């Protein structure tokens, strides 16, 4: 049967992974990306060993990824500090660089991409409106718009949702010594801040905080950073490398823990639009790549009608990592249980390894 080319919305890890695998399988996918030029997505940039395997499956060898090596996790909560090795080597890489590498790979595999073209709404009959007024009727649509919902395909509203905030700390020898090869998780009431060095030696400080916590701190990311800096000396030591004119990126209402097994024939939901794993686990990029690969393989085998089966299977595959990550996130966002987590991982380091493997997506 003749198949028309799949249309992919979004050039993040999910959309580009689907494009690479579809093009490798002989299809001619087209990606529509809302941004005119790909920016640096709000993301901690932690690339787990499992995510590295998916990148390798897409033809991006670990040795070609110029990320900063990360081999341990350091937890901070009040005065408690605990450190434990990761089960395998991970890395810190900016999403700016990672997304560029994935787009280049997709294009060299034969995918097309149009930048600055934003989808606006998806209609009951399967047609798609673009912001420029065009209407399309794709037979196969891969929805990989990540953090941004399309009208007609929302993920619902959540009580006191998480807000994502990201700042960059300037590269400095002292910052390099403080953080080294660790992914740092600074736990506090109502949220956490993750910090890691990236390819250029800068620190990517990425936080997920409850909306109510942000409101209590004065409502602005700047106010929150200064309240946290006063209460948490380890974090304050690192915030000393925040340039005075630093820009602060933020994203509201992240539906952590949401997953779906439902879709319509011809519509494949990928990445955060399929399952939104709490970022503390550092596996959102891994889930996004895995969804893109699996959806593309389902399409190559069965065409547009394979979407419902793919969506059910992907929802099953993400149940364990998303549930485990949600439990960890809830434990980490209260100071009492955060300190308990540190004690537990120090007295029984295997617990950290168990948590790390439960929050990865299976093969
Ligand atoms: C605070 C925070 C920290 C995180 N830290 C980590 C981490 O350290 N490690 C990790 O693995 N994961 C982390 N994550 C999760 C990770 O960022 C996401 O899971 C991942 O980006 C999902 O990839 P995606 O391709 O689905 O979406 P995205 O990366 O969001 O990409 C979506 C793309 O679609 C485009 N787009 C959006 N709307 C439209 C539209 N209407 N039309 C066309 N294009 C559109 C966007 O411009 C974007 O390029 C973090 C998330 C947050 C919020």
Q: What tags apply to this protein structure?
A:
37% helix; 363 residues; binds flavin-adenine dinucleotide; alpha/beta; 24% strand; 16 strands; eight-stranded mixed β-sheet
Tell me what you see in this structure.
With 363 residues, this protein is α/β, with parallel strands linked by helices. Helices cover 37% and strands 24% of the residues. Helix 1 packs parallel to helix 3, helix 1 runs parallel beside helix 8 (284-302) and helix 6 crosses helix 7. The longest helix is centred in the last third of the chain and has 26 residues, at 307-332. The protein starts with 6 loop residues before the first strand and ends in a 5-residue tail after the last helix. 48% of the residues are buried. The model has no long low-confidence stretch (mean pLDDT 95). The chain binds flavin-adenine dinucleotide.
Secondary-structure blueprint:
Layout: E1 7-9, H1 13-24, E2 30-33, E3 46-47, H2 49-57, E4 68-77, E5 80-92, H3 95-109, E6 112-115, E7 119-122, E8 128-130, E9 135-136, E10 141-143, E11 162-169, H4 173-179, E12 182-188, E13 191-197, E14 203-210, H5 211-216, H6 221-231, H7 233-239, E15 249-254, E16 267-269, H8 284-302, H9 307-332, H10 335-347, H11 350-358
Parallel strand pairs: 1-2, 1-10, 2-6, 4-12, 10-16
Antiparallel strand pairs: 3-5, 4-5, 7-8, 8-9, 11-14, 11-15, 12-13, 13-14
Helix pairs in contact: 1-3, 1-8, 2-8, 6-7, 8-9
The chain binds flavin-adenine dinucleotide.
Flavin-adenine dinucleotide binds near residues 118, 119 and 146.
């Amino acid at each position: 049967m003749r198949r028309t080319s799949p249309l992919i919305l979004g050039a993040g890890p999910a959309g580009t992974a689907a494009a690479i695998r579809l093009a490798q399988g002989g299809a001619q996918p087209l990606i529509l990306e809302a941004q005119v030029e790909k920016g640096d997505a709000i993301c901690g940039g932690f690339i787990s060993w499992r995510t590295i395997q998916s990148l390798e499956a897409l033809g991006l060898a670990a040795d070609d990824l110029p990320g900063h090596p990360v081999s341990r996790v350091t937890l901070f909560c009040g005065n408690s500090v605990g450190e434990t090795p990761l089960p395998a080597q991970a890395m810190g890489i900016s999403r700016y660089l990672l997304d560029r590498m994935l787009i280049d790979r997709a294009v060299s595999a034969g995918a097309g991409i149009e930048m600055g073209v934003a989808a606006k709404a998806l209609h009951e009959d399967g047609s798609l409106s673009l912001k420029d007024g065009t209407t399309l009727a794709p037979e196969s649509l891969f929805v990989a718009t990540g953090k941004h919902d399309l009208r007609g395909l929302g993920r619902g509203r959540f009580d006191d949702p998480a807000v994502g905030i990201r700042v960059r700390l300037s590269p400095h020898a002292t910052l390099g010594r403080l953080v080294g090869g660790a992914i740092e998780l600074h736990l506090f009431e109502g949220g956490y801040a993750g910090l890691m060095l990236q390819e250029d030696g800068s620190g990517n400080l990425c936080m997920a905080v409850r909306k109510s916590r942000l409101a209590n701190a004065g409502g602005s990311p700047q106010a929150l950073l200064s309240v946290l800096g006063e209460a948490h000396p380890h974090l304050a030591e690192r915030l000393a490398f925040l340039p005075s004119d630093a820009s602060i990126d933020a994203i509201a209402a992240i539906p952590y823990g949401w997953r779906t097994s439902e879709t319509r024939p011809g519509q494949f939901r990928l990445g955060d639009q399929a399952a939104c794993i709490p970022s503390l686990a550092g596996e959102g990029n891994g889930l996004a790549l895995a969804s893109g690969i699996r959806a593309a393989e389902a399409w190559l085998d069965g065409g547009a009608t394979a979407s419902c089966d793919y969506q059910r299977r992907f929802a099953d595959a993400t149940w364990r990592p998303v549930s485990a990550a949600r439990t960890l996130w809830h434990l980490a966002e209260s100071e009492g249980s955060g300190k308990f987590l540190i004690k537990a991982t120090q007295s029984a380091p295997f617990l950290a390894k168990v948590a790390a493997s439960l929050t990865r997506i299976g093969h």
